[in-house]
Write a structure and sequence with these properties.
This protein has one domain (22-229): Four Helix Bundle (Hemerythrin (Met), subunit A) (Up-down Bundle). It has eight helices and two strands, in the order ββαααααααα. It has helices at 19-41, 46-64, 70-81, 83-94, 99-125, 131-156, 169-183, 196-241; strands spanning 5-6, 9-10. A two-stranded antiparallel ribbon has the order 1-2. A hairpin with a 2-residue loop joins strand 1 (5-6) and strand 2. Bound molecules: ligand LH5YIG7M, the ligand Nc1ccn([C@@H]2O[C@H](COP(=O)(O)O)[C@@H](O)[C@H]2O)c(=O)n1 and magnesium ion (2 copies). One magnesium ion is lined by residues 1, 84, 105, 109. It is found in: Cell membrane. The chain crosses the membrane at residues 195-213. Belongs to the CDP-alcohol phosphatidyltransferase class-I family.
């Protein structure tokens, strides 16, 4: 989120970036920039794209996934999820990247993620009938939200949080959605392929846990360094004042 950018190209420090955000974002920025420019010419605002994209993801996840329609759910979600890359691109082309936009983008990311993993959980709690996978899915949902929270809270207390970790949002989505899309082919007669979704959910669960530990350790180190720095500066300031 929120990286400083110019002409649609990310210029943020890449320290600690996970693989997709580091490499795929640049590619999709190039691909999606003409489409973002087209929407701007049609008078569409970045906020509209953010809202419509989220609504599409939520609808795709909650209409199809609880019924076990993983292929069609993933198709609908995939059509809308790239709006998350288009809205920021539009804001940057317009020179209108704003704090409000950053807040809206991140907040609605959490809503979309909740719907995707909530849709899987509803399936396993219902006709999918698997308590263990329901629990793993709920862990994916909760840990993904906490992983994002660690960064937001760390940054809110003035720390750089200079690590993104092993599995950030793009990885969580790509692993889960690609697996769900292929697993959905089971309904079209492809045998055995439905096992991909449970495998993906376990990978996302373990990866999110590792990422959470990476971020907590980083915030602890950064906050200790910041507190020590503040303690060193405090006596100097009182000497200057007296
Ligand atoms: C046989 C047929 C099967 C059909 C299968 C169809 C499969 C298609 C499947 C999936 C496509 C999935 C695409 C997912 C794309 C995700 C794009 C996206 O939204 O990325 C968002 C991400 C982060 O954006 P932000 O910076 O706006 O968000 C920040 C983030 O949420 C932070 O969270 P944290 O990481 O901390 O947990 C928050 O902290 C922060 O607040 C928030 O603002 O954007 C990126 O990272 C950019 C990279 C995107 C890379 C997309 C790669 C897509 C790659 C491949 C998809 C195609 C796969 C096709 C398979 C086809 C098989 C037939
Ligand atoms: N409605 C919006 C959405 C996003 N922004 C800005 O873009 C940044 C996120 O970029 P992505 O490529 O990850 O979408 C966000 O931090 C905002 O600066 C906006 O202004 N308005
Ligand atoms: Mg976005
Ligand atoms: Mg986003």
């Amino acid at each position: 989120m929120g990286q400083p950018v110019a002409n649609g190209a990310a210029t943020a420090p890449t320290l600690g970036k996970a693989m997709l955000n580091k490499y795929a974002r640049a590619f999709f920025t190039r691909v999606l920039t003409p489409f973002a420019a087209f929407l701007i010419r049609r008078g569409v605002s970045p906020d509209t794209v953010t809202f419509i994209g989220t609504a599409g993801v939520v609808a795709g996840a909650l209409v199809f996934y609880p019924r076990g329609e993983f292929f069609w759910g993933t198709v609908v979600i995939t059509l809308f999820v790239f709006s998350d890359l288009v809205d920021g691109n539009m804001a940057r082309q317009l020179g209108r990247s704003s704090r409000w936009g950053a807040f809206l983008d991140s907040t609605l990311d959490r809503v979309a993620d909740g719907a995707i993993f909530g849709g899987f959980a509803l399936w396993y709690a219902g006709r999918g009938d698997d308590n263990v996978l329901c629990a793993v899915t709920l862990f994916c949902l909760a840990s993904g939200q906490v992983v994002s929270y660690t960064k937001a809270r760390g940054e809110a207390i003035g720390l750089p949080v200079a690590v993104n970790g092993l599995v950030e949002r793009a990885e969580r989505l790509v692993i889960s959605l690609v697996a769900a899309g292929f697993a959905g082919l089971h309904k079209f007669g492809v045998p055995g392929i439905d096992v991909l979704l449970p495998i993906a959910l376990w990978i996302v669960a373990v990866g999110s846990l590792v990422t959470l530990v990476q971020r907590v350790v980083t915030v602890r180190r950064e906050s200790e360094e910041a507190d020590q720095e503040a303690a060193r500066e405090a006596p100097q300031q009182s000497e200057t004042a007296s």
